[in-house]
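Q: Two folds, back to back.
A: First:
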Amino acid sequence: MLGHQHGYSTLSREVILEASKEFQISQARLDKAIHDAPTIFQRFTNEKQKYIAYVAAEILDHFKNDNVVYHGLAGHFFAKNVSHLLKVRILANMDDRIAYLMEKENLSRDNAADYLKKDDQDRKSWSLQFYGVDTTDLALYDLAIHINKLTVDNAVDLIYAAVEQPQFKATPESQQRIENLALAARVKTTLINDCPSCEVVAEGNSVEITARVSSYTGTTIDEDIKIQFKH
């Protein structure tokens, strides 16, 4: 697999485990936050936005290290406009997906098909709700690979050949971009309880925060920012 074989570290559920431990949120809630569209109640409470912010901060902290393979949900939404990031979508025939799930989970064909249909719809609804885009839109990706005639090993070779191209090599500017995103994401985790709608943009050690707050909340945010920068 692409990863240790080619000198890359791999990352998947580790981000959920890390966020769960750091922010004291159950893994199940974090999983749902980056997969399921919010319910009507959750839209008013901003619960999912908080959990998404926690996961984003963990993912971006890992992305700062470069040469990381992340196989999971939502990573490409958190690391926007980073030129050296190769975004890949892996596709498979529905019949093959059903057969795999039947064997893995010991399901009937109908149950496996229903599960996958709902899973696909949930992911699409999530991306439309939070980012206004359809996650199945191939324009979001640099490379799409259909596992059919091509094997998994073929896919690994194609991905490695693509990532070796000069346009996917980190530059000082693109590395700074990921550093800025990671810092902004980390600051947002500190503020999001008091101000769920805040927007944070970082540029080097300068952070711009846009938020609507009460006088009391504004005072606590000032203290939270000072604490964040001490770390």
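A: Second:
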Amino acid sequence: MVTGVLEPKLETMMNVSSIELNPVLESMQREKRTVALNSLLAAIAITFLKLIVGISTRSLGILSEAAHSGLDLVAALVTLLSVRVSDKPADAEHQYGHGKVENFSAFIETGLLLLTCVWIVWEAVRRLNGHHSVHIEPTLAAFVVMFLSMVVDWWRSRKLQVIAKRYDSQALEADALHFSTDIVSSGVVVLGLGLVWVGQRWQVAWLAKADAVAALLVSVVIVYVSSRLARRTIDALLDAAPAGYRGRIVNAALKINGVIEVERARIRRAGNRYFADLTVGLARNVTFQRSGQVVGEITRAVQEILPDADVVIHSIPRETGHENIFDRIRAVASRNNFSVHDVSVQDLGGRLHVEQHLELDENLSLKDAHDVVTVLEAEIRGDVPEISTILTHIESEPSTIESGNTVVRDAVLEQKLKPVVQEFPEVVDMHDVEIKRVRGKIYMSCHCTMSDELPLSRVHDVSTELEIRFKQAAPELFKVLIHPEPQTDNRR
């Protein structure tokens, strides 16, 4: 049932995302498909011309190039189909998108190149050994076609490389690399064919084998190209991390304030999109909100290295090694989703005694609340064994909004309290006195101005003593809240 609920939401989110990016996606898809289609049309024309002149001249070099171009035609068709599929947005079944299709396309192209190489080597060896004697007739048409092929390969390689770099397309980049090496292999074939022509014209018999030797050199070029493509495509299909990026990402994450360690960093690529998954250690006392801020900073740092990457950060609590006893006590409470306050530690004859205040749901019974405190105290002693005893003051945590009447001014009550304020030289003045009556009880709050340089510990002591004196001077007060302000505060 959970899956059935989540999948439509996931599809809706992905559809909304694709709609928002529609203009950008359309531009990218249009450019990638256009250059792939042009490459396909060029491959059709070149393959047809090479095949004709190869058959007419019986040149193995040209026939090998025709076979090479024929596989280029298949590769160009696969590339065109792959860029059409890979640009589809992620969906419920393909949550990482369809980018792997481009990597698979490049893998197929690698296999086709190797098949071409096997045939060329086999036929060249047969001719060199004299098992398959062929009379080659170099013609002007053969040279024209080969030079035309080199010009077309240069043109489409350049176009493919520009679009491949712009959109980080591995399929188009593979095609561009492929066609750039075709220029070299075509040049070798032209050289071999030229040497055959020279041999026939000047009666140099051994030059008749230049065409087969040229074919072997073409196969060497194909093996070189295939090995480069094979390594890159296999790495992509096996989710190999891009070289050097993991270290850069880990170093960038460790520079962010609050990150203690990077336990794991994984990077994968699908088409032109990167996905990064990091597990980072944060101080166990940081708040959930602060951890979210740190995660956001890490995400931005990763995307500076891998633009547009999909980043997932998993944060885990870690002990910093510089925690004092108060931090360790609060860490245990936080681990149990409690917040303790007014923690005090006394060293009594070498034994540490801890006192703390803990707020629990006001609807709990005393027994249930006491059971919670017992478990918490035992866990604190387990984590901080140097503590001998713990005393916890249980307070009720309000869970309801109380209704009451606000009394803006009570001159009689204020008159009672003013002499009390004068007993404390640290208090410069008292203002914004507010009195509320809730369920028959009187709540009083006020702002007290104190010196900017007064230590916070002394501010707390003065506020506590002042609250006690207020209640002594006006016993009708149920609760007193004092808000201390520095003298430079301009908001009062």
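Q: And?
A: Residues 114 and 313 are 41 Å apart (CA to CA).
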